[in-house]
Structures are given as structure tokens and as C-alpha cells.
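EI: anyone free to look at a 114-residue chain?
SC: sure, send it
EI:
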Amino acid sequence: MTRPSPAVIDVVDALHRQRVADGIAPSSVWGVFDRDGLVASGGAGDRGDGTAPDADTVYRIASCTKSVTATTLLGLVGGGAALPRRPGHRLRAGVPLRRPAHGGLPPSPRSGCS
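SC: here you go
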């Protein structure tokens, strides 16, 4: 993927900064990914410790997890990805992850995660 143009990055960043300025959210982070990883990111507001959030800030997304997971899986399948199939293995609700999806980064102070 080609890195988004500076104009596109400016528009996305301005949207997130405006959400913080309007009081919609105390902080906001955005990122653009391709198959190799993060290609652009930004953040606005205060993550709770006096610093601005960035691509390493971890947010607790609570009950949104199901929607995010479903959307991600549908996008992968819709894009032609095949889910691994092993005899006796199924995706099951309520089975905890063995490794944090965020790579084991410590949560931010106000995330509510422990």
C-alpha cells in the first residue's frame, strides 16, 4: 500500500482533533494499516496522564469488542482470506485469548484495563 497523501492524513487528523475539541471524546487515535503494518497514525487529546495518545496507546473498548471482531472477520473472509480449519478446532465465544491482541503493551492509566 502506498502511504496516504499528506492531504488525506491532514483531513483524518483534523476530524479526530475536532472530536476532542467538541467534547465527543477525551482523546482519540487513528491509524492506517496495510499488510505490512502501520503506515500512518495520529492522536489528539489527553490519554489521562498529561500526554497525547499515540499509536501505542491502549484503549479499553468494552462491549465494542464483539462488533470489532465480527467486522474484522467479515472483512478478512470478504477479502478472500481463509480461516484456518483444523479438525476439532472451532471459533468459540467466551474462550479467552492466550496473548493480548495489543501485543502485551501496558494499558494507559485511565483505560480501566488491568
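EI: The longest strand covers residues 37-45.
SC: 👍
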